[in-house]
Amino acid sequence: MPVREHRRPDHDIDPLFVNRWSPRAYTGEEIPDTILEQGFEAARWAPSARNAQPWRFIHSKRQSSSWAAVFGLLNERNRLWADKASALIAVLSKTTYDDGSPNHTHSFDTGAAWANLAHQLFLAGWHTRAIGGFDRAAAGNVLGVPEGIAVDILIAVGRQGPVDALAEEFQLQETPNGRRPLTAFVSEGVYRAG
Amino acid sequence: MPVREHRRPDHDIDPLFVNRWSPRAYTGEEIPDTILEQGFEAARWAPSARNAQPWRFIHSKRQSSSWAAVFGLLNERNRLWADKASALIAVLSKTTYDDGSPNHTHSFDTGAAWANLAHQLFLAGWHTRAIGGFDRAAAGNVLGVPEGIAVDILIAVGRQGPVDALAEEFQLQETPNGRRPLTAFVSEGVYRAG
Fold this sequence. Notes:
Chain A has helices spanning 15-19, 33-44, 67-71, 76-82, 106-123, 136-142, 168-171, and strands at residues 55-61, 87-94, 127-131, 149-158, 186-188. By secondary structure, chain A is an alpha+beta fold. The longest helix of chain A is centred in the middle third of the chain and has 18 residues, at 106-123.
């Protein structure tokens, strides 16, 4: 489906930012390691405070022995579509600098790394969808996450699949969604947004 | 300065991610509104939990009446170079969903929007540098930020300027910095990163 039928940017920008979107319909095919590595490589070059690079990633392919445990973290509703993802990736961030002082922007910086990963995978022909609906309390145990590392989100990665293979409740939502206009979130000098 | 002299990716990725970097040397020239709008437009299309679009931006051009107040938030050390930026942008995020429930990923999602902004500006010939060193306590007042909105970072935007116009302490650092290898932050199934 051409994204341009659903999204019209108000200002002239690189098509990459508009064309990337987050489908739920995936094919379930195996993702090559090279594709995952390219995604992490792009994330690697994101900017971060003091170049601390607080992002951490744990990946699990659908075909791997770790899949059941990671997939089991998802809320029931997300399991309905994410079982056709090719991989799940947990995105985590280190909450302190190496000297022990708090890193106020660990999640913010890791969000920039996530954007790089999403865009690189998209350029390679793969899609991603971030998942906030998962068992945050269980995630630390299941993923073996040490203290001082926060779990930010999970990401589903896959090749876009047929919409009619989705559970019915998701079929009508399977189009690139819109955004508020700039006036809703940009102002000059002082805060005047929504 | 060619970025490739300083950065060699280990995996084949789009050059955009490697070529974007964060200089301190800027020209101070006026930034056209169209360039700023393109940056915000790219940020606009970032993914976010429940499509809540928690990002907010407050911009101030060097030539504007608001500049002195925003610039005054910076730590002394950052003022030494940021006085040649063309604009400062405060990046903020709404900490709750519209129904009042907490948004766990407000900063994370806003970090993705920041990556889009940085890349779009870079593609248009402008550079950005995020600034964590500023008076966080004063920022809310100076920028008129209401409750429930977090200040994530400030960003300097500008055209790259001559290195020898920088204060001496910054001149030797004015090259694209490196990153840890993938093995330091990526693992399979369970956490095994650094």
